[in-house]
Amino acid sequence: MSTLVVSLPAGPVTGATEWGFALTEDGRTPADHGRAPAALLPVPRGAGAEIVALLPVEAVSWHRVELPKGLAPGTPRLRAALEGLLEEQLLDDPDAVHLALEPGARGGAPAWVAACDRAWLRQALQALEGAGRTVTRIVPEFAPEGPLAFSAIGEPEHATLVASSDEGVLALPLAASALSLLPAAPEDTPRFTEPAVAALAEQVIPRPWTLQQAAQRWVLSARTRWDLAQFDFASSSRARAMKKLATGWTEVLRSPAWRPARWGAVLLVLVNVVGVNALAWKERASLDSQRETVSRTLRDTFPQVRVVVDAPVQMEREVATLRQQTGAASPRDLDALLGALAVAVPPGRAPTGLEYSSGQLRASGLSLTADELRNVSTQLHALGYSASADGPVLLVAAEDAR
C-alpha cells in the first residue's frame, strides 16, 4: 500500500512553501523523503494509495472532556456539544477552531478532543488539492495514545521535547529548565531523537537516545487510529468507506504480515473444494448403487423387461399388467373407487353422473359445500385416495396414481 505523508507547514501557505514528505510502500518504512513544493510532491501509486496530511505537534492542542450520555461520533449535535464543553478551554473563538473527537469515544465517558486553527488547515488542504494532491486522511504528529515516550525534534536553535502517552501530549523547549514539567518516567522509557538535536538531547537528559529521522516518525504517525478529517473536513461517508475498504484489502493481499493468513485461506479453500468433491463423488456413487439395485430388482422380477429406462414407472406398468392378467383387485379399479366414494360422501347424497378413465373417477352432481369437501377429502385420504374439486365435479383417484 503506497502512502504519501505530507507534513503541513506551521505557518501560512504560499506558492513558495516547501512541504516535508515521506513516501512509504509498506506503511512502516519510508522509501523516499525530503521537501518539495506541492506540485512536485510524489504521487502514491497502486491500489489503496492515499495521501495523509500530518499536523505538526505545535499546531494541535489537546483537551480532555466527558461526553454527555447519548452523544457519540456521527451525532448531528456533536459539534455544538463539543464547543459548549470546550468554551472555557479554547483561546480562540470556537467558530475559528477545527475540532476532532477521539475515535471510539462513547457518551458518558472521558474522551480526548484535538483542536487546531480551521482557516490554516483549510488553506493547507486546498493548496495540496490545487496541486493535484487530494488528502484522504488527517493525522496528528503526536497523539494521546500508547505508553509514555519522549521525542526530541526540530533544529538546535528551536528544539522541542515531546512527551506523549494516553495521558496526553506535552511539547516543551528542549532545555534543562523544562525538565521539572515532564511527567515522571522509568529508566526504560523509550527516547527518540532526530540526528540534528541528538547531542543537545543527550546533554539535557543524559540517557540513551534512539536516532529516528523525522520521515520515520511521520510514517509511524500515519498508522494512528486518529483521523482529524471530521465535521466540515470529512469526506463523503461513501468515499471514506470505500477508501478504507480498498486500503484494508490491499493490506491483506500484499502485506507480509498477512502472508500466513493468505496461505491459510488458500489451504482452507482447497480443503473445502476437495471435501465437496469427495462428498459429491460419494453421494453420486450411492445414488448409482441405488439405481442399479432398483433396476436389478425390476429385471429379476420381470425377466421380459430387457431395457431399463425408468425402473419405477416400468415396474408399475408391469404390476398393473399382471393384475389385469390375474384378475387381482387394484385400488385404481372402478369398483374400488366407487366403494371409497360411497363411504366418504354425506348420507343422502348421490352423484348424478360418473365417468371413469385411467384410474380416475369423475363424480358430478354432489353439490358439496367447502366443509363437506374437506370432510370427504379427509375420509378418502384415510382410505388411500385423493379427492379434488374441478368446478362442480369431484375427482377421486388412488394416491399412488396421482
UniProtKB/TrEMBL annotation:
<dbReference type="GO" id="GO:0015627">
    <property type="term" value="C:type II protein secretion system complex"/>
</dbReference>
<dbReference type="Pfam" id="PF05134">
    <property type="entry name" value="T2SSL"/>
</dbReference>
<dbReference type="GO" id="GO:0015628">
    <property type="term" value="P:protein secretion by the type II secretion system"/>
</dbReference>
<protein>
    <submittedName>
        <fullName>General secretion pathway protein GspL</fullName>
    </submittedName>
</protein>
<dbReference type="InterPro" id="IPR043129">
    <property type="entry name" value="ATPase_NBD"/>
</dbReference>
<dbReference type="InterPro" id="IPR024230">
    <property type="entry name" value="GspL_cyto_dom"/>
</dbReference>
<dbReference type="GO" id="GO:0005886">
    <property type="term" value="C:plasma membrane"/>
</dbReference>
<dbReference type="GO" id="GO:0009276">
    <property type="term" value="C:Gram-negative-bacterium-type cell wall"/>
</dbReference>
<dbReference type="InterPro" id="IPR007812">
    <property type="entry name" value="T2SS_protein-GspL"/>
</dbReference>
<feature type="domain" description="GspL cytoplasmic actin-ATPase-like">
    <location>
        <begin position="49"/>
        <end position="233"/>
    </location>
</feature>
